[in-house]
Task: inverse folding
């Protein structure tokens, strides 16, 4: 009897098991990125630039050439790659501390130059790998190990809204914020990721997808509760949607 | 060979282009911005890519990216900017990526000034960033030598997969001299390790990361093995009138050139002076210099610093001769006359 393969591990993922915590959304997003790379047929020319943070190992989970950048500098590394070899497809995978704190300058200027690179931005409102410190995206009142009394705007300022800042920059060709808490969200996120890659492939400019994500370990809640907390708090602070789309519908 | 009248930093830029460099990322800083400007003008003419980065921090990481895809790449900066690049250079060194850096050293510390200095010697030769790594450091004393060493730097960087630093100063960078360029065919092939896309082969990783201490120690041992090879193969220095010298001046770069004038002045007055001019600051010519411990009565190290190379001179000579030092700091360039006067005072001559 012959079987048709209707679902399998994407070719763009390596066979290495993910090392992320239970309930963490990195695994879902990794898979979506890999599916998009497969569907676009670009695996053999795509380079991943991993960040410093929990996804520092991301380049080991993909079946791609890759590197890991210094903290905050992933888009600068990606810029160097793409400028030196424009035939490559280059993407960065970054967390909120990496992209929106230490790497703010690189983020803004890469977007503003309209570098033909793609960024997958995981916003979980906390520093995961270093053990739950405050991130630029930490919500007001949220307790972390370095905001133990809750984030206050007087002391720590307000949560940084990356998409709302970047949408003003003309170099951006695709920009969206999404989540992966429901199957519908997962499908929407995949569509966005594909467009963020197409922005690069079609030579339109910079593409970024912000994925609101959970960190059950450092939030100190079980995975299901983390998803509920994300829905009830993060989505309120960070509205979902498409901010820039110069890609249009793919025919 | 045809000679061109060129400013030091522009000659370095042209040397880089003739060595096959087609990628430059940098940030303006005095006294080397003419090099950044030269590359902005010239690279598009030869099909290359120039980008003014948002900072030296971004620039060094763009270098990391361009090098990791296998292309010849350079940046240039001056002291405060070079400090900002140190983290990235440490990553580049550990990931074994070839790249060429130019530091046109200016007076420091801090914001300092914009005049010539050699005060970044420790930073250049002893690490600079974090961890156990070395740069190959080349110190030219003329515009022609700066050009030649820049072209050599790209070959060395590829051969050892290691960052190479041209250690210049504001005087050398800003002066104009006639230069000629060696005509040579540029070939280099980094396809054995570069990130080119995992087509028909297993994925590759360029990384300075290894969470396993035994794995990271192994990476470190590979680096150390490479540094021993560099020390065995690449030491360069110039000896000038040293055959019968009983007074030896040790000086590098611009000061090496000044010291040559001092040697001529001394010889005219019957003093048997000679010059030992290190060209590679790392690897340093410890062994060659050590020979002068027995042969000389005095070794005078002259630097535009408080005495940084002096420590390597002392290591070479192990107190086998009298070791003295003359230095100017903060962007003050010593004149041959003042160095000669100091030399004479040391040996009791008027």
Result:
């Amino acid at each position: 009897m012959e079987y048709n393969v209707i679902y399998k591990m994407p070719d763009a993922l390596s066979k290495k098991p993910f090392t992320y915590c239970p309930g963490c959304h990195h695994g879902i997003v990794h898979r979506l990125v890999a599916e998009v790379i497969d569907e676009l047929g670009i695996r053999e020319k795509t380079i991943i630039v991993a960040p410093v943070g929990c996804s520092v190992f991301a380049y080991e989970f993909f079946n791609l050439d890759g590197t890991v950048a210094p903290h905050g500098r992933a888009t600068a590394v990606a810029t160097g790659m793409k400028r030196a070899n424009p035939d490559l497809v280059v993407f960065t995978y970054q967390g909120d501390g990496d992209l929106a704190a230490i790497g703010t300058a690189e983020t803004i200027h890469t977007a503003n130059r309209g570098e033909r690179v793609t960024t997958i931005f995981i916003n979980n409102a906390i520093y995961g790998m270093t053990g739950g410190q405050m991130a630029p995206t930490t919500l007001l009142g949220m307790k972390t190990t370095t905001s133990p009394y809750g984030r206050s705007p007087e002391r720590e300022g307000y949560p940084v809204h990356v998409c709302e800042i970047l949408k003003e920059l003309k170099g951006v060709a695709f920009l969206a914020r999404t989540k992966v808490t429901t199957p519908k969200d997962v499908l929407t996120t995949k569509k966005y990721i594909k467009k963020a890659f197409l922005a690069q492939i079609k030579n339109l400019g910079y593409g970024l997808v912000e994925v609101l994500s959970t960190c059950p370990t450092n939030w100190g809640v079980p995975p299901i509760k983390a998803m509920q907390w994300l829905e009830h708090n993060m989505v309120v602070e960070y509205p979902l949607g498409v901010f820039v789309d110069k890609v249009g519908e793919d025919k | 060979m045809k000679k061109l009248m060129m400013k030091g930093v522009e000659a370095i830029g042209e040397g880089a282009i003739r060595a096959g460099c087609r990628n430059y990322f940098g940030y303006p800083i005095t006294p080397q911005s003419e090099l950044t400007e030269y590359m902005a003008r010239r690279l598009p003419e030869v099909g290359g890519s120039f980008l003014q980065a948002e900072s030296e921090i971004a620039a060094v990481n763009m270098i990391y990216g361009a090098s990791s895809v296998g292309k010849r790449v350079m940046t240039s900066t001056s002291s405060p900017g070079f400090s900002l690049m140190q983290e990235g250079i440490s990553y580049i060194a550990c990931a074994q990526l070839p790249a060429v850096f130019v530091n046109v050293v200016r007076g420091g510390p801090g914001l300092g000034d914009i005049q010539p200095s050699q005060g970044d010697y420790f930073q250049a030769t002893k690490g600079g960033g974090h961890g156990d790594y070395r740069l190959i450091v080349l110190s030219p004393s003329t515009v022609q030598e700066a050009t030649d060493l820049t072209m050599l730097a790209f070959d060395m960087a590829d051969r050892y997969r290691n960052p190479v630093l041209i250690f210049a100063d504001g005087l050398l960078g800003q002066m104009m001299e006639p230069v000629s360029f060696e005509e040579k065919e540029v070939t280099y092939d980094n396809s054995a390790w570069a990130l080119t896309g995992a087509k028909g082969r297993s994925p590759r990783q360029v990384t300075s990361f290894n969470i396993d201490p035994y794995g990271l120690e192994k990476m470190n041992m590979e680096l150390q093995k490479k540094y021993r090879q560099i020390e065995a193969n690449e030491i360069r220095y110039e000896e000038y009138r040293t055959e019968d010298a009983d007074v030896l001046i040790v000086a590098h770069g611009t000061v090496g050139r000044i010291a040559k004038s001092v040697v001529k002045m001394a010889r005219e007055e019957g003093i048997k002076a000679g010059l030992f001019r290190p060209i590679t600051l790392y690897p340093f010519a410890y062994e060659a210099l050590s020979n002068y411990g027995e042969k000389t009565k005095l070794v005078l190290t002259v630097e535009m610093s408080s005495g940084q190379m002096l420590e390597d001179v002392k290591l070479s000579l192990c107190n086998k001769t009298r070791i003295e030092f003359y230095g100017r700091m903060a962007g003050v360039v010593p004149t041959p006359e003042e160095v000669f006067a100091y030399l004479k005072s040391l040996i009791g001559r008027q």
